[in-house]
Design a protein that fits this description.
Length: about 425
Amino acid sequence: MSDSTLSRRAFLTRTAILGCSAAASPLLTPVSLASAPWDNRLVVIILRGAMDGLDVVQPYGDPALAGWRRTLSAGPQNGALDLDGFFALHPALAPLYPLWQANDLGFAHAVSTPYRDKRSHFDGQDLLEAGTANLGPAAGRDGWLNRLLQTQPGMSAETAYAIGHDNMLLLSGAAPVANWSPDVALKLSPQGARLAELVMHDDPLFRDAFAEAQMLSGSMQAMEQQAMMASEMMAGDMQGMAGMAAAPKGQAKGIELIAEFTAKRLRADTRIASFSIGGWDTHDGQERALSRALQQLSTAILTLKAELGPHWKKTAVLAMTEFGRTAKENGTKGTDHGTGGAMLMAGGAVRGGRVYGAWPGLSEADLYERRDLMPTGDVRAYAGWAMRGLFGLDRAVVKQAVFPGLDLGTDPKLLR
């Protein structure tokens, strides 16, 4: 990289002022990207805060469900969309129902990482993104998507955008990747903006990046005040989950911008992308809070589909969360941190129209520690089979390099 390019990068970094703190930003984490020599695409969405799989993919056919939840009513009789006579889809995901009917949407239920019992968002998310059995020193600090790239020769990074935060752990590691973040407000005077344009005039890469950042900055400034109000409501361990208690009105547009940018890169050289959506920690008022988060997820997926065009047929989207929530509704019409949860899969490459996994049951004796949905599948195995199908990875590579020590089990045949 030339000195002139580095100077432009330094210029951008120094003139970019964060419009929101990391805790307050409704666009909590950056989009991470990596190009690869495959035609298929993979998008991994991390759902930060622990999504309640029992409310998203409702097992209304299990007679024990109603006894655990007084106000979180489930099933088609309460507005959910029937999937298969046993599971129903949360009403807030109704816009995705046509994807289910087209076999472009599916779920894996009763899944989890190896994380158990402590139920810390931060440890749970780190383990999900690391893809290892534990977070000890021996496990390293790279992410499973980066380890996937490390197994392939000749990897090249996507265009590097200097404006933004560091990579998510999911794509952090030795393999080259690119990073871009929209949660930056470029508070430049007209003279400063003009100076930036002149500095980068002969460098299309940074000129285009700066123009895009300016556009996104306008959307961010409109959201800034509401996002800051949301952050003031959070405390203690919840600080890292900010944006989830009070979703700003402009947040839908924010996630749409992220999905549009992701699809734009996937239409070009990028083959792997990841970003995250907050808002899933529903300790109280779950009915409203979960609906807001699901609307964000729905917007992201539908935007990806629309913007990818014909490339949607070669795309798999995996939406994963750090752990599930308790089977029993708490006293504030919410649910607490649990264990087993659900994973969403979308895309034209996905064999959708079904809920994968072995259902463990919801009677008290069937629950994990008599409080949580019992995991019957490892969420990493579903991701492993998806990558094996998309990219032709050897089974041993998945088990030894990408997810060390993972028992892949039987092929669930997730892809078409």
